[in-house]
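Please review the protein record below. Let me know how this chain folds according to its tokens.
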Amino acid sequence: MYLQSKVITANMEGWELFVNSLLPMITGAIQYTIPLTLISFTGGLLLALLTAMMRISKSRVLQIPAAVYVSAIRGTPLLVQLFIIFYGLPNIGINLDPFISAVIAFILNVGAYGSEIIRASILSIPKGQWEAAYTIGMPRWQALYRIILPQAARVSVPPLSNTFISLIKDTSLASLVLVAELFRKAQEIAARTYDFLLLYVEAALIYWGICFLLSLVQIVIEKRLDRYVAR
């Protein structure tokens, strides 16, 4: 009976801790995780489009820097990039706020991976589309803007959506540069209570819930886009 009573008490304490820690974690997600994701993805998408345009241009002056940037970012871990920006740059006199450091790292990362998605989407458009645009007098930039990019955008939505969902999870790395996002809150509470398993599982469930909702949105968007695809 004594042992059973201890188990019940422990379960009640665990449930109380689960409930009490839910609000700080959700607050961290709303204040830092979600804004960090949205800002980084928007900036990264713009950088990705610019980089993709440089990669497909006919100028070597534009191609080479873009290719080096993509290779460097894709060839090094995101965590290392984050540490270089936050912990390394102060050695040369550049001190950045933790949130700004995380935004820069994530923008550079999304820009590199997103540029390859956009570039592949553009290259997947049949050459006949370019030729048709040229025959009606469109210059290259106009053909790209009015004919090619709208078609490439539809092709790139699924992989870019996956990148966005992955970015939600990657923001947990910002906890290592002191950004008080969702996982950082879980770490702080766990450091006080020593109940690491419960709190980290709780954080994982919150991440899972956010990503699941985003997956549902992705499915809806893809179904709407499929209406314009010839069967």
About this structure: Helices lie at 2-56, 60-74, 78-88, 98-123, 127-135, 140-170, 182-193, 196-226. The chain has one domain: 2-226. Residues 1-10 have pLDDT under 50 and may be disordered. The radius of gyration is 23 Å.
